[in-house]
Design a protein that fits this description.
mainly alpha
């Protein structure tokens, strides 16, 4: 990759990273909504007499809720993809920095030779 191509590549990766961040937030919001609905059901269940029963019922309802586990899987996959993009972004930034330093070094050498 040429030096002048790095800014666009970095910007593209940053845009992808932002997209994954938004997807993670959306999925987390969906999970919280599901948990909230289940917590409401548990809170208003008069048959549950103590915290242990409420916790057990909450866990049971979560395990039975298919959409909840689908969202958990989506969240896990999205976080993994986001991490891959983040690693690639860091790599591109570092490569760009190295190329800039190498160019500066080459310019400094040329200036040094010209002054001698």
């Amino acid at each position: 990759m040429n030096l002048n191509e790095y800014p666009a590549a970095i910007a593209k990766l940053q845009t992808q990273l932002t997209g994954f961040d938004l997807a993670v937030e959306k999925t987390q919001a969906t999970l919280k909504q599901i948990e909230s609905e289940i917590d409401t059901c548990v809170a208003f269940d008069s048959g549950l007499r103590n915290d242990a029963q409420r916790k057990a019922k909450r866990q049971e309802l979560l395990e039975e809720h298919l959409h909840y586990w689908e969202q958990q899987e989506i969240l896990s996959q999205t976080k993994a993809k986001r991490e891959q993009i983040f690693i690639e972004l860091c790599l591109r930034r570092n490569e760009f920095s190295i190329l800039k330093l190498e160019r500066r070094e080459a310019i400094a050498r040329l200036e040094l030779q010209a002054n001698q």
